[in-house]
Amino acid sequence: MTTLQNGPDLAQLAATDHKVARNLATAERERQATQARIASDDAATERRLRLQEGQLRLAAQKDADRDNRAERRRQQRETERSARKARRQARRAELAGWYAGRVAYVRDNAAAVYSGLIYGLAVSGAVYGQVDAARSNGLPTPIGVIAAVAIEGTGLAMALTAQHQRLNGERAMTARALIWICTAAAVAINAIGHHADPVKAIGLSALSALGIIVYEVRSGAKHRPVLREKGMIPDPPERFGWRRWLTYPRQTREAWKADVRDRLSPGAAALIARTEARRVEQRRQAAIEAERERQQKVVAEVAAGARKAVRKATGKDSGAVLAALARLAATGTPAPLLALPSPDRVAVEAARADATTPAGRRRKRKHARRC
């Protein structure tokens, strides 16, 4: 209840005065309406503020999302750019490594690379010549290509087969024979098919032979250490130099002959050693047989001499015969000396004495060499 300062209470006045009560009620209603309007305005203002804040937050969120998307796209572009750059660098490094590897291989295997290049060029020229010869003789080009590839391919296949067989310890005679048969066929086709143009015939025929020659030489050089390790070929020959050949030709020739004689593969050396041992054994057996025959002959001569001495022992010269028999038994003088007459025995004794001297031995050796 509202009261006036130092005045009467309004409630009491309203109770006593209807006009005051109405005024008070009207004022109260206006006050409440004003408060309601103020509250409504405050609520509307609050709603507007909240809406604006929401809109601001939404705009800020949109801006943030847009910035985040832009940042993600930028990062993605940076990542993709970095990945592309890394891929390009990797490709460049791979290409540089491949190129460096090829250069190193060519530098370390120059002979093999150049030989392969020459072989490819020679085979290409040979195939072209055979195809051209086939066309010149009225054959279709496909048939000429097939025939040329078959001939050159057979030669290469047999060369690889021969190489494999040689590495396994075989001689590969059949495969190597087929190589040269195919080569001869290619040379003949190019020579006969281009007989009207001698320069072309000679050049293409030379190419046909050059390919397999280069391959054979290069293959032999490449696998020679392996063949030496397996004992299939000997070590390289010794080199004496032209100055030694000019200065000491005889001594160098003897050394060269010794090198040729002794420079053998292990298998060949074993075979020659077996052959030499068999030859020595045959000579020993022949010497033993000859000695046996000589001893049998000596025994027969001794027996014949003894029989002759016994027959002579009944005559007047029995004492000399008995003395000869005693000498035979005591000194081992060969029986032919006993059977010879006295002058012949003297000549034999002189020859024996001459043989024991150095000059006699030299004459005996010269006679043996002449025989």
What structural keywords apply?
single chain, about 375 residues, mainly alpha, elongated
Written account of the structure:
The protein is mostly helical and 371 residues long. It has 4 domains: 10-100; 109-233, no CATH class; 267-339, no CATH class; 344-371, no CATH class. Helices cover 86% and strands 0% of the residues. The chain contains 13 helices and no strands. It has helices at residues 10-16, 18-108, 110-136, 141-167, 173-193, 198-229, 242-247, 249-262, 266-312, 318-331, 335-339, 342-355, 358-370. Helix 1 crosses helix 2 (18-108), helix 4 runs antiparallel to helix 5 (173-193) and helix 4 (141-167) runs parallel beside helix 6 (198-229).
Radius of gyration: 63 Å
The N- to C-terminal Cα distance equals 178 Å
Please give the largest β-sheet: none
How many strands in all?
0
Q: Tell me, what's the shape?
A: elongated
Number of helices: 13
Helicity range = over 70%
How much of the sequence lies in strands comes to under 5%
The ordered string of helix (H) and strand (E) elements is HHHHHHHHHHHHH
Helix/strand/pairing class, anyone? Answer: mainly alpha
Mean pLDDT over the full residue set: 78
Q: How many domain regions?
A: 4
Uncertain runs = 1-7, 330-348
